[in-house]
Amino acid sequence: MIKNALLVFIGGGFGSVLRFLISKALNKQAFPIPYGTLTVNILGSLILGFILGMALKNDSLNNASNFLLSVGFCGGFTTFSTFAFENQALFRSGDYVHFAIYAFGSLILGLLAVTLGVFLTKFT
């Protein structure tokens, strides 16, 4: 239990720092849609799909690397709370078009990215 918690802590730290750097590089005030958050959430979904697809393929869902990478890294890398806050801000400002594009685009692209990640494991 302590080992798994430590793995999640380490992976989450790396994921959070990488998310911060990517978001700061891509979230510019001139763009109505927060591309940094969108990018990390879609990329994180792709990575998570690949990791879990590999774990299912190798029947190793409970190993240490899954705690480090899926729960830790991907959990720290992606961010639902920021996504929700940014959507709320777009909605509150009356920017309903960008709100809809960001909200539904994130959902659809996220699901497609997880599916693609799992699909890619068939070729490894």
TrEMBL record:
Keywords per UniProt: Cell inner membrane, Cell membrane, Ion channel, Ion transport, Membrane, Metal-binding, Sodium, Transmembrane, Transmembrane helix, Transport
Reaction equations catalysed: fluoride(in) = fluoride(out)
TM segment ranges: 35-55, 67-85, 97-120
Record's subcellular location: Cell membrane
Main localization, broad class: membrane
HAMAP family associated with the record: FluC (MF_00454)
Activity regulation, free text: Na(+) is not transported, but it plays an essential structural role and its presence is essential for fluoride channel function.
Protein name listed in UniProt: Fluoride-specific ion channel FluC
Residues the entry annotates as binding Na(+): 75, 78
Free-text function comment from the UniProt entry: Fluoride-specific ion channel. Important for reducing fluoride concentration in the cell, thus reducing its toxicity.
Record family assignment: Belongs to the fluoride channel Fluc/FEX (TC 1.A.43) family.
Any Pfam family hit: CRCB
Membrane topology: Multi-pass membrane protein
InterPro entries: FluC (IPR003691)
Species, as recorded: Salegentibacter chungangensis
